[in-house]
Amino acid sequence: MTDFEPTIIAFVCNWCTYTAADLAGTSRLSYPQNVRLIRVMCTGMVDPQYIIKALLEGADGVLVSGCHPGDCHYINGNYKARRRIKLLKEILPQFGFEQERLRLTWIGASDGIEFAEVMRELVAQIRDLGPNEAKLKMVI
Ligand code: FES
Fold it and tell me: Is the pLDDT of residue 137 over 80?
């Protein structure tokens, strides 16, 4: 399992986590290349279907990350995301996915260092978890 490199899809809010990713890049902070960022205007617009689809079609892990509670540019989008992710985590095992394959974080626009750390930690966690078995079944 040592040569397994996970693919991680990260839905990141335009105003906070995407800006933090940009800051990490301009600050020349390194983080694993395994993470594919998908910029959304707010975590509140991440439909649970997007997450299930990502896991079914090849992702080994999914991250949803946005503004800290109270900082959402659309007032309460991140609170909606938090409720949805909590419920989705409860039903993920019914689809054959471990709950640890989905994570929600808050990373502010000035947290470039934290962004890089979270990406490294997430990739290490998913690498330890191993390949997404449900994805492998879909391929076969
Ligand atoms: S605008 Fe960033 S989470 Fe809503």
Answer: no
Residue 2 lies in a domain: no
The pocket around ligand 1, CB under 6 angstroms, is made up of: 13, 15-16, 42-44, 66-67, 72-74, 77-78
pLDDT at residue 64 above 90? yes
Nearest CA to ligand 1 atom 2: 67
Overall number of domains in the chain? 1
69 falls within a domain: yes
For position 110, which CATH number holds? Answer: 3.40.50
DSSP state of 89: H
Condensed to tens digits (0 to 9), the pLDDT of residues 110-123 reads: 999 999 999 999 99
- Residues 9 and 46: their CA atoms lie apart, in Å, by 12
Residue 87 lies in a domain: yes
> Average pLDDT for residues 41-65, to the nearest whole number?
96
DSSP single-letter state for residue 72: -
Mutate-to-test residue for ligand 1 from 11, 12, 15, highest number of ligand atoms within 8 A of CB: 15
| pLDDT in the model for residue 133 | 86
Q: Domain of residue 103: give its range.
A: 8-139
- DSSP letter at 71 equals -
Which residue among 18, 38, 43 is best mutated to probe the pocket of ligand 1, counting the most ligand atoms within 8 A of its Cβ?
A: 43
Q: Per the domain annotation, does 3 fall within a domain? A: no
**Residue position matching structure tokens 């991440």:** 46
